[in-house]
Amino acid sequence: MAQYTGFAPAMVLFGLFFAAPMALIVAYSFWTQNGYQVVSQWTTANYQQVFSTSVYVNTFLTTLWMTAAATAVTLAVAFPFAYWLARYVSRRWQRPLLFLVILPFWVSYLLRVTSWVIVLGNHGALSRLLGLVGLSTPSWLLYDRPAVIFVLVYLYFPFAALTLFAALERFDWRQLHAAMDLGATQARAFRQVMLPQIKPGITTAVIFVFIPILGEYLTPELVGGTRGVMIGNLVDNFFQEAQYAEGAAIAILIAAVVVVLLVIFRKSLEVRGEMYGG
Fold it and tell me: Which CATH class is domain 20-276?
């Protein structure tokens, strides 16, 4: 047991700041809401209310496809950048470019989102630029779902880019040349040689992007307006109105989706020894 003593502080922090709050949220989701008070009487009425209210169900489904779309676009943008950075940029310039990628983290999250509200607004920089070329400002440029997805891609691009770069940096590029020397096309070598080896990195990037976006509420609130509401906004509204039981039930549903996602991707995170000849 002595060898596990060093884990004690981490376990205490885990219990205080994750396990205990999560257990409380689970309990609240099964307790009865009586006005503004939550009574410890066990019931499934909170979940029944969530699944029987079309607005909640539609918002949850909308959140899933918006999260999937934002994740897909983020990876579609981040992968070419990470590929170019890992394969074609010298090590001398990789660090400065990576520094530029993480530079937005030095600025407040709220400030970064608010800046896009200014840029995408009716009298913002983008609207004025479109006006200079004779184009009108699209109605979906702000306070709509495309605006939310766009800003989410901007916010989570560094997570995907850094994760994919770490995976591509460890890849032996000579294997691609060897595959093509043996008759494989560049696309086939890319698909059958490189992708299987960097699959854990791609899966990690998906997890790092999909899971935080699933619980987003500030960006949809500031950028999406009434048309860009996501499930996190419902949880926030419930808790602000002291409807803790229903808010807890929706929060548990979000956590359930996260758990299912992690179970699905578990095998992808396992690096098989035979892939590397081990």
Answer: mainly alpha
Q: What is the CA radius of gyration of the chain?
A: 23
pLDDT in tens, the chain (278 residues): 566 677 778 888 878 888 888 899 999 999 998 888 888 889 999 999 999 999 999 999 999 999 999 999 999 999 999 999 998 988 889 889 999 999 988 888 999 998 888 888 777 777 777 777 776 667 677 888 999 999 999 999 999 999 999 999 888 888 888 888 888 888 888 888 888 888 889 999 999 999 999 999 999 999 988 888 999 999 999 999 989 999 999 999 999 999 988 888 877 666 444 444 43
The two tokens of residue 14 are: 């885990």
Which are the contacts of 36, defined by CB distance < 8 A and separation ≥ 6? 242
Do 162 and 101 touch, CB atoms closer than 8 A? yes
DSSP code string of 154-174 = HHHHHHHHHHHHHHHHTS-TH
Kindly list the domain boundaries of the chain, sorted by start residue.
20-276
CA dihedral over 223, 228, 230, 233, signed as positive or negative: positive
Residue type, 277: G
How far is residue 211's CA from residue 48's CA, in Å, rounded to a whole number?
A: 25
Give CA–CA dist 87/200, Å, rounded. 19
Residue type, 143: Y
Residue 207's CB is within 10 A of a number of other CB atoms, namely 19
**How far out from the chain centre does Cα 59 lie?**
17
Within a 13 Å sphere around the CA of 172, how many CA atoms are in the beta-carbon half?
7
3-state secondary structure of 276: helix
- Amino acid identity for residue 245 in this structure: A
CA pair distance 63, 275, nearest whole angstrom: 36
CA distances from 65 to 3, 210, 214 (A): 45, 11, 10
